[in-house]
Amino acid sequence: MTFEPASPLSGELRPPPDKSVSHRAALLGAMAEGLTRVTGYLDSADTRATLRAVVAVGAEVREGQADEHGGLFVELEGVGLRGPRSAEIDVGNAGTLLRIMPGWLAGQADGEWEFDGDQSIRRRPVDRVADPLRLMGAKVDCRDGRLPPLRIRGAPLHAIDYEMPVASAQVKSCLLLAGLLAQGETTIHEPVRTRDHTERILAAAGAAIRRDGDAITIAPAERLEVGDIPVPGDFSSAAFFLVAALLVPGSEMSLREVGINRNRIGLLSILSRMGVDMGGAHGDHAITIHEIREPGPEPVATLDVRHAELAGVEVGAEDVPAAIDELPLVALLGCFADGETVVSGAEELRAKESDRIASVVEGLAGLGAEIEARPDGFAVRGSRGLRGGTIDARGDHRLAMLGAIAGLASREGVEVTGFDAVAVSYPRFERDLRSLIG
Ligand code: S3P
């Protein structure tokens, strides 16, 4: 798939439904009593794996009409907190499913479950959930002590007070679900705040959950009732268009109904430090954030974006969780900025769908970027542009989309090999992108 240097981006778009919220809506709907109705469920390979997983443990899933943006209407009939049956679960490429769902199953009175997936999932660490689950009394095994397949046998759990060594929303969510079935109150401390979608849905479903500084505490529950969940647009998918509009001169476009959960929009504060002027509807900004509303557990807004000049920026560990999936885009922005862009404290990137430090650095270097890898991030020397060439997606959806945006902003265009990896989170990416470049 080839992406030529583009004419300006214009028009408006509703990005696809949020992947993180879709996974959680299906899981919590399966754990609940009665009917859960999800509007705008993401139709992608990853989130379809979660629907299959909840069916495998006994939940009923009914799919209604897709909306005009491709979001699915999904009704789930839950099995209840203590009702899942034994199953083998194929997570495909979905790390979020692999790491969150075991928390629910570990505390069952009986039953056995096995989680496995594709080649890429088999190199993604699961000791980060297996270790704390074992501290709660869970019976969990994994390959070489740290990799999938992950096997769980139901066992009685007790609460723990746990300091997470890595800032991970997946680990936090896993332990919160385990806490629902543990004896006593479970407390989890996060080194830096991570996305809180699970907490929001749990609170709406009636769980006793509270935050105090860096700590989240959850009490055991008898039942959950989730009800209706509208899924916001995915900020991490919208970010590709946002960056494209910033980079391609003359661009001016709108992204509608984008989720703006504060733990997801770290890219906006990084951009503001790169000199991108942003603000509300009254004013003349490069990024205007308006029409803010809260139709469900998550806030959404419209983002109007136009081309802007950029300065280099330093991104550190405290910035990482809220921008974790957008850091490849920060590398691309750095190529067009004035001065140096350095990302550090981001070793977590090595445990994503690909080793995203190696794949981003090697991928962008192949397109002419002056970029070097560091153990915990990368450094880019801004040269106000990019030549172009060929980039391999390495089976990583976000690398495929990064290559496409690099192509639009480059001088000679970019060929992306393995582009079909986009199906993991955004099957309509190419169509949506082409609708903005006319
Ligand atoms: C996710 C959390 C992040 C993120 C991933 C989705 C989630 O991973 O990179 O794409 O839905 O909880 P970590 O929690 O491992 O940082």
What does this structure look like?
- This protein has 438 residues and is α/β, with parallel strands linked by helices.
- The protein is 29% helix and 27% strand.
- The chain has helices at 19-31, 45-56, 95-106, 127-135, 169-179, 197-204, 235-247, 266-273, 327-336, 356-365, 397-409, 429-437, and strands at 2-3, 10-13, 35-41, 60-66, 72-77, 87-90, 112-116, 139-143, 147-153, 157-158, 161-163, 182-183, 186-189, 209-212, 215-218, 228-230, 252-259, 278-279, 287-293, 300-306, 314-315, 340-343, 370-374, 377-381, 389-392, 414-417.
- α11 links the parallel β25 (389-392) and β26 (414-417).
- α3 runs parallel beside α5 (169-179).
- The radius of gyration is 21 Å and the shape is globular.
- The model has no long low-confidence stretch (mean pLDDT 97).
- It binds shikimate-3-phosphate.
Oligomer: single chain
Broad shape: globular
Bound heterogens, unique: shikimate-3-phosphate
> In angstroms, what separates the terminal alpha carbons?
17 Å
Quick recap:
Helix content is 29%, strand content 27%.
Give the tags.
438 residues; binds shikimate-3-phosphate; alpha/beta
What secondary-structure arrangement, pairings included, does this model have?
Layout: E1 2-3, E2 10-13, H1 19-31, E3 35-41, H2 45-56, E4 60-66, E5 72-77, E6 87-90, H3 95-106, E7 112-116, H4 127-135, E8 139-143, E9 147-153, E10 157-158, E11 161-163, H5 169-179, E12 182-183, E13 186-189, H6 197-204, E14 209-212, E15 215-218, E16 228-230, H7 235-247, E17 252-259, H8 266-273, E18 278-279, E19 287-293, E20 300-306, E21 314-315, H9 327-336, E22 340-343, H10 356-365, E23 370-374, E24 377-381, E25 389-392, H11 397-409, E26 414-417, H12 429-437
Parallel strand pairs: 2-17, 3-16, 6-7, 10-12, 11-13, 18-19, 21-22, 25-26
Antiparallel strand pairs: 1-26, 3-5, 4-5, 7-9, 8-9, 13-15, 14-15, 17-20, 19-20, 22-24, 23-24
Helix pairs in contact: 1-2, 1-3, 1-6, 3-5, 4-5, 7-11
Shikimate-3-phosphate is lined by residues 20, 96, 168-170, 173, 195, 324-325, 348.
